[in-house]
Amino acid sequence: MPQTASGIVYPTSADNVDPPGDMQAMANSLEVIVSALLTPPAVRAYNNAGLSMANNTLTVIPLQAESSGMKTVASMHSTSSNTSRLVAPENGVYTLSAMISYAANATGRRVCQVRKNAAGSGLGGTQLHSVNIGPGPTSGTVVTFSDDIALSANDYVEMFGYQLSGGALSVDAGEFNTAMSLHLVRYT
Length: 188
Known about the structure:
Elements: H1 19-38, E1 42-46, E2 51-53, E3 59-60, E4 65-66, E5 85-87, E6 92-102, E7 110-116, E8 126-133, E9 141-151, E10 156-163, E11 169-171, E12 179-187
Antiparallel strand pairs: 1-4, 1-12, 2-11, 3-10, 5-10, 6-9, 6-12, 7-8, 7-10
């Protein structure tokens, strides 16, 4: 019997029906469907080492760690290769959230940008979202956004930072400082 990309088996009119075997295959498919509905693909990763960002340079943000209990599909993120990428395992609409925490500096602008399939290049792929704000005068600046985006299976998103302080500026490390998450909300 044929099956979907998600592994769901379904009979067609051309299939010879083997009731016990087909019922088991359909029961297994139902288990896959229920599991996908109860635990949709999701991941949240963050920068745990900090980063010195050059002035006037769009810089990809590595995400070397994952929030505990937030990763439901292993292929969505790697902590050892292409760490800046969050990968969509299925076709669907995903909620994407991103935030970059910049060190205090009252000069210039701060940007958080997300691109699809960019291969680590600030000019690559497709820009999905960009937020550009002025810095806080005496404290750090956090640039954040959340949006629903359509992705195909194996598309990936990467977060980039940009700042115009006149010199290098630190990006704060930590799970609640510089992070990105991807959560499937609807299959397409």
